Amino acid sequence: GAGVSQTPSNKVTEKGKYVELRCDPISGHTALYWYRQSLGQGPEFLIYFQGTGAADDSGLPNDRFFAVRPEGSVSTLKIQRTERGDSAVYLCASSAGTAPGNTIYFGEGSWLTVV
Amino acid sequence: AQSVSQHNHHVILSEAASLELGCNYSYGGTVNLFWYVQYPGQHLQLLLKYFSGDPLVKGIKGFEAEFIKSKFSFNLRKPSVQWSDTAEYFCAVTGSSNTGKLIFGQGTTLQVKP
After folding, report:
1. Average pLDDT, whole number, for chain B?
2. Euclidean distance between CA atoms A41 and B106, whole angstroms
3. Which of B4, B43, B100 sits opposite A98 (nearest CB)?
4. Cβ of A103 and B46 within 8 Å?
5. Considering only alpha carbons, which residue of chain B is nearest residue A105?
6. Three-state secondary structure along chain B?
7. What is the pLDDT of residue A102?
8. What dihedral do alpha carbons B26, B29, B30, B31 form, nearest 10°?
């Protein structure tokens, strides 16, 4: 597609359940990023991939959060034992590389609500 | 700690007024700086970026920003706003050695009255 695609666009889940959020980056983009945005806040970095490997996962809040990108294209963010505090918009982004001249393009996000 | 501070949380202007949104950052080393915009119901879009050269950078839709290294600032400006500029604006920084990790400010909501 033309842009970064994220599914689902909305997800309501019960506390304690497992959730997967999917990101399909712009075709050919080698770098892929996950951010989390809570109400009234700016996006908060979680992790980014260069190809298949996680180049920096320092933003993952705890071991309940995990992300994969097995073939260097689509990525899945996985959240185990969800908590109400995990409710946020999860943003995916991609770029042709991580050099400063490369623009990072964001998707529309997946709204996660944990009840 | 690495951080970005946006001084104005909510700005209300009339059309044709001039705009300046403040952004200060705390980051060791050489930085790259960005302004992103999020129009209502849309995704984040890049307005402009600075990574080297002329500290005055021009972006889309008549926006510009000036990098003042001594003040750790990257303020966004527009001489005459339009109703269509109503949006949320985010300042962000990366380090030159870790360009994949954007640190965002809290955002400024701009409301332009027609």
Report:
1. 94
2. 5
3. B100
4. yes
5. B45
6. CCEEECCCCEEEEECCCCEEECCEEECCCCEEEEEEEECCCCCCEEEEEECCCCCEEECHHHCEEEEEHHHCEEEEEECCCCHHHCEEEEEEEEECCEEEEEEECCCEEEEEEC
7. 86
8. -30
Would you place residue A1 in the very low, low, confident or very high pLDDT band (cuts 50, 70, 90)?
low
Q: Closest to B100 (Cβ–Cβ): which among A44, A48, A109?
A: A48
**pLDDT tens digits along B26-69:** 988 889 999 999 999 899 999 999 988 999 999 999 999 999 99
Cross-chain Cβ contact A48/B107 below 8 Å: no
User: Residue type for B12, please?
Assistant: I
Determine how many CB atoms are found less than 10 A away from the CB of residue B111.
12
CA-wise closest residue to B48 among B22, B31, B66:
B66
Q: Say whether A7 sits in a helix, a strand or coil.
A: strand
Q: Which two tokens stand for residue B4?
A: 């970005």
Question: Cα(B102)–Cα(A55) distance, rounded to whole angstroms?
Answer: 13
